[in-house]
Each structure stands twice: as C-alpha cells, then as structure tokens.
Amino acid sequence: MPALSAPAPVSTVPDLGAASGLLCRECGARTALGPSYACSDCFGPLEVRYDFGPVTRQSIEAGPDNIWRYRELLPVPAGIADIPNLEPGWTPLVRAHNLGRELGLRSLWVKDDSANPTHSFKDRVVAVALAAAREFGFTTLACPSTGNLANAVAAAAARAGIRSVVLVPADLEQQKIVMTAVFGGTLVTVEGTYDDVNRVASELAGEHEDWAFVNVNVRPYYAEGSKTLGFEVAEQLGWRLPAQVVIPVASGAQLTKVDKAFGELGTLGLVEPTPYKLFGAQASGCAPVAAAFKAGQDVVAPVRPSTIAKSLAIGNPADGPYVLDSCRRTGGAVEDVTDDEVVEGIRLLARTEGIFGETAGGVTVAVLRKLLEAGQLDPDADTVVFNTGDGLKTIDAVSGAVGPSAHIAASASAFEAAGLA
Ligand SMILES: [Zn+2]
User: Fold this and answer.
1) CB within 5 A of ion ligand 1: which residues?
2) How close is the Cα of 372 to the center of ligand 1, in Å?
3) What is the spatial distance between Cα 262 and Cα 270, in angstroms, rounded to a whole number?
4) Tens digit of pLDDT for each residue in 174-225?
C-alpha cells in the first residue's frame, strides 16, 4: 500500500494563490495544502478549496491569452505566467454551423482543445500540477498515462527544465509514444492496461518522495486545471453558461471540474447562474460510468477496457461517482457509442467543420448525435461539444475508413478518366 501523502520536501508555506486548503469530497474533513490526495480519515479524494478575492471580468480579460488569465481561480502563484511554461489554453470555441445543421441543432459550438501545445487538453492540467509541484519542492514530473498526458508531461518538463518519468501501456498508439520520447525524458512502456500502469505508478509515488506524479500525489491540483475549459467556454460565449455540454469521460475529472467551474463563475458573479445540463460520453468498450447511469446505480463497477478510444480507456475511473452526481443533478445523462460510431463521429466532425479530432472527439460527437436522436438534448438550446485531442495522434482509428479518391497515372487525361470532375 503506497503512502497516502509524500512528506513535503519543503520548509516554507506554499504560495498557491487563493487556494486555502484541501477538502475531502466524502466526509468534508479539511487539511492543509500539501502533496496529499486521499483523506486521512476516510480515504476519500481531496479537492482544493479557495478563499477567492475579488475577481472581475475585466481583470480576467486583461490577462494573457492562455489559462493563466484565470490564475486567480486556480491553485497557482500570482506570478505563474512569468515562469517558463507551455502557455496552454484559450483554444478556439468554433461555431459549428455545418455540424449543427446536419444534426438538427440550432446553436452548436465545438470547444477545440486539439489547439493546445501538445494537441490535447492535458496541457491544462499538467501546467497547474507543475505549478503545485514546484511549490511543494518536487524535482521530477511523473505520470501514468493513456498517451495524451504522457505527451503533455514530457513537453512541460522539457520547457521547465526538469526531469520527467512517464509510464504508458505497451499497446499505446505509436504516435503518442514517439511524441513523448522526442522530449527526452524517461519513458517506460508497461505490459498491461492503463489500470495496471496506474497501480505501478501509485506504488512508485510512495517510494520516490521527490517525484510529483501529476495525477496521483498532486492530483487535487492537477484536476483543477480542467476548470479552465469551463471558464473559457463561458467567457467565449460572452460571459454566459451554455445550456448543454457534452464532455468525454475517462477518469471523469474533466466533467466534474467543468461543473465546478460553472458553479464558481456563478458564485463570483462573473456569469448569471443559469441552468445547464452536463452529458458524459464514453466508448461502449469502456463505459463503466454510462452503465452505472443507465442502471440507476451510484457505484461504478470497474471494467476491462476494449476500445479504439484509448485516451478514454480507464476501466476504474476515479471520479466516476462524481460524474454520476453532476449529470444527475443537472438533468443530463451519460451515454456510450460503439467503435464504429466513434469512427463515424470523427469523420462527421472533420467533414462538416474541418476539425480532425482524436478518438475521444469522435466519442463526444457520436454521443451528441445519439442523445439528440433519443430526444435527450434540446435541439434549440445552446450546446457545446468538446474535442479534447488531435486526430493525428490516433490516425490508425480512421486509416482503414478513409483514403484517396483515386490512384492515377501522372496525366490530366488519367484524372478525367477516373470520373472525379
Ligand atoms: Zn474524508
């Protein structure tokens, strides 16, 4: 059993901005800021709590065009934007007229997070985890990963000038392995599923006190980075909340943090606290949260993943029960789609909006369509769907489904003969 919290190798009080402590999500026990992730009373997961100062739309809008414009709402030092980092975030919110028309949705946007530095939303969470890791005195940035996180950790560590240690399943897409290795850190491929890799990382986290495993021993801070997706969507809509959001579910942290972000914006008076519905999207080959939702259960039974959507292939999602809470409380749902539907979703998004999403993006678009056809989405309400990664990283998923229109000899007459004009 790994230690639940590494002893902080630091003598000063950490400067994490408005963050004032950690709160157990199960029993409500409070503890001081530190590299802890589980409650010492009940082993429940810990969450960052804040004493926010005055925050205005103007102060945010005057900030940089990256996630640090929301630094006052994150567990980071005030001067975070000046420390060398990948400057993730402020990705496009694309008004998806064509996709909306094809599906029958009146006002649809795609939050395209493939525009981040390593082409996935993981750059957001890693940036916040790195800030906390520095404050706690860690010297190495580490993670278990399904791929996108590996890319983000290796790149962020390279920019920060520190060591990275990354563990991934051996069957990961080659693109994600190369895109991690190129940054020069330590990369280890592990025989097993992501859940096996995660178990190894948890054991190592207990043994290496100077390693910050971004999604293990600094997880409460790391997860806060996903709030920036919610902040950006609201600001980019003109400081208002969308009525419906479809979000991919792997660990589930992203969906629950968008929920938290919308709540904080309302509490702080930065948006009208209008109702919104959150919808979780999973691949049928790894849909433990969707299964629990449909069965009306509060407990998420672990599954062994088998899907092309490897970035979502977490069989035992840490935030699964909280996703159920968020979706049920807001009147949303959790739905899943087959791998064939995922490929169709990727192609639909690409063909209608010119956005090549990774398999997770295919999952959300396919779930969007399925929910709409089932009457679970209001076709007239403002709707946002997330594309969290770049299709170039999961090219094998569609390489068998698309290809050249023709193969011809090098002459115009051959083109004409192919009947393409
Ligand atoms: Zn507790």
Assistant:
1) 24, 26-27, 29, 39, 41-42, 44
2) 38
3) 10
4) 888 999 999 999 999 999 988 899 999 999 988 998 999 998 889 999 999 9
